[in-house]
């Protein structure tokens, strides 16, 4: 009987400490753009935001040793969240976004190329690392310009057993990439 109670306690501890893989929820972009302001009378038409990743739900994984133990996922519509956030930041930067495509100074298409967040509980410095890669295609007059933006960051978080703990890093990566795109557009 004593052995059985030890087994039950051990099983409860293991179940309680296993990774809870709930969908990661990305917060909406907050008004934190503080870069350059757009030249006067510059208009932007945000034509599209497309998530070009093969697996639109996967955003990374939990690494245990050298194996991917758990895939991190999200059910958020990253295209919509990015488009809403970018539109908001463009307005903060002084761009006029209430314009038709054929009347805009800049026509912008955004492509989400990569989202990758990796958590490992075996590191004592940065145990959570993330990367987001964005491509922006900007049409200005007869020219089409392509810009690539890569945000990478890492930090240490206390041992995590829930996928929601990676959400703040993911939000920071998205916000920083939006700010970089807007800053680039102000220089065109």
Describe this structure in words.
This is ABC-type transport auxiliary lipoprotein component domain-containing protein. InterPro entries: Uncharacterised_YajG. The chain is of the alpha/beta class. The protein has a single domain (20-186), classed as Lipoprotein like domain (Double Stranded RNA Binding Domain, 2-Layer Sandwich), CATH 3.30.160. Helix content is 27%, strand content 34%. The protein contains 3 helices and 6 strands; from the N terminus they run αβββαβββα. The chain has helices at 2-16, 78-92, 167-186, and strands at 44-51, 58-64, 67-73, 106-120, 128-140, 143-155. Helix 2 packs across helix 3 (167-186). 26% of the residues are buried. Residues 4-18 have low confidence and may be disordered.
Question: What's a quick, concise take on this entry?
Answer:
This protein is an alpha/beta fold.
Task: Present the secondary structure layout.
Layout lengths: L1 H15 L27 E8 L6 E7 L2 E7 L4 H15 L13 E15 L7 E13 L2 E13 L11 H20 L2
Parallel strand pairs: 1-4, 2-4
Antiparallel strand pairs: 2-3, 4-5, 5-6
Helix pairs in contact: 2-3
Count of DSSP H/I helices:
3
Low-confidence stretches: 4-18
- Structural class by helix and strand composition: alpha/beta
Radius of gyration: 21 Å
How many distinct folded domains?
1
The CATH architecture would be 2-Layer Sandwich
Overall average pLDDT: 87
Q: What's the total count of β strands?
A: 6
Helix content: 25-40%
Biggest sheet details: 6 strands, mixed
* Strand/helix succession: HEEEHEEEH
Give the overall form. Answer: elongated
Termini gap: 75 Å
Q: What's the CATH H-level superfamily name?
A: Lipoprotein like domain
CATH T-level topology: Double Stranded RNA Binding Domain
Organism: Sulfurimonas aquatica
Keywords: Signal
InterPro entries: Uncharacterised_YajG
Pfam family, one: Lipoprotein_16
């Amino acid at each position: 009987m004593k052995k059985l109670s030890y087994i039950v306690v051990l099983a409860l501890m293991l179940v309680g400490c296993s990774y809870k893989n709930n969908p990661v929820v990305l917060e909406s972009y907050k008004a934190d753009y503080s870069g350059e302001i757009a030249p006067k009378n510059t208009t932007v038409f945000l034509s599209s935001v497309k998530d070009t990743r093969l697996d639109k739900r996967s955003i990374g994984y939990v690494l245990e040793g050298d194996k991917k133990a758990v895939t991190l996922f999200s059910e958020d519509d990253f295209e919509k969240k990015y488009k809403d956030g970018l539109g908001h930041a463009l307005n903060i930067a002084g761009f006029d976004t209430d314009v038709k495509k054929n009347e805009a100074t800049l026509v912008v298409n955004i492509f989400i190329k990569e989202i990758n967040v990796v958590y490992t509980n075996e590191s004592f410095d940065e145990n959570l690392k993330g990367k987001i890669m964005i491509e922006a295609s900007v049409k200005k007059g007869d020219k089409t310009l392509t810009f690539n933006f890569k945000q990478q960051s890492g930090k240490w978080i206390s041992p995590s057993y829930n996928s929601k703990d990676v959400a703040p890093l993911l939000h920071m990566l998205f916000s920083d990439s939006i700010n970089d795109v807007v800053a680039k557009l102000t220089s065109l």
